[in-house]
């Protein structure tokens, strides 16, 4: 299938610019404009009644579509929020922060976690242990071994690491390595919509976080979390009135929570992102596109790109500068990462050629999306000559 047909508005607006930043901001498909406009129309039509008449059906179907992709048995174990940080801190607030709190993570988590974790660790009663992700082939053993060193309250780890694209494959073993007292949180932002993921065996054990800004192609302001059915005992301190929306009329000076994932909701938010995410997932369903097909397509583009590197470097970078090759692994997401001290300089040089990439410290990242083709890769290398 020619996926480019789904992105005509974005590609037309970009003109000659080659967008290889799909890991950061994925181009939006055409369907999201209609979805955004539909939200405005619904607000005009229904006013205050829009929450029940218009938004609730869209949210319900969006949950159902997400649940199908993740192989969740119950869509009601999904809740939405404007961003991942909000969801993470809501999980942290389930614990009594006056007592000892032990958190285990890695040194390669995105800032929505790492900044907040660093701030939390300023308290004497809160410790945040970080396992180095490199060398990558030893990460699994290091991480699982560290779990045996201490009783951890929270374990937080990315499925695909933002600064390298390297992907873990031991979520099930992680879940089996700790008791139910340990909260397991998996950041799936760089995996959801890119890497085929089944939570069928994990749905009653892990909290899974992801959102629309990247491979779900629906922009800012819409993230979600899957919540284990066994999480009904958690009472987040950081809570909003949506978390007991269905029982507000019976409110009697007590803080109650919904029995499902809604217990982790906040307060009034902008639901237009849910409209956009719903439109993307609905489009995939109508086009018979699943994440496995997307992954296979992107993998073929990445292989073509690496093959081109065999004969032509990128401002001195070659195949051996790719971090997954240096680390000896074939497990990585939908962006390729060069490790180089010249990352920022090379990014600027590429931008001068109308090629969009991005960098994080010494990592230069090339993201591949459904709107790419081998012709785009050919154009990239032609501009370097």
From TrEMBL:
Source domain of life: Bacteria
Keyword Transferase in annotation: yes
Record-annotated Aminotransferase class V domain positions: 48-380
Ranges in a coiled coil: none
GO molecular function terms noted in the UniProt entry: transaminase activity
Keyword Transcription regulation: no
SUPFAM superfamilies attached to this UniProt entry: PLP-dependent transferases (SSF53383)
Keywords on record: Aminotransferase, Pyridoxal phosphate, Transferase
Pfam families xref list: Aminotran_5
Name the record gives this protein: Aminotransferase class V-fold PLP-dependent enzyme
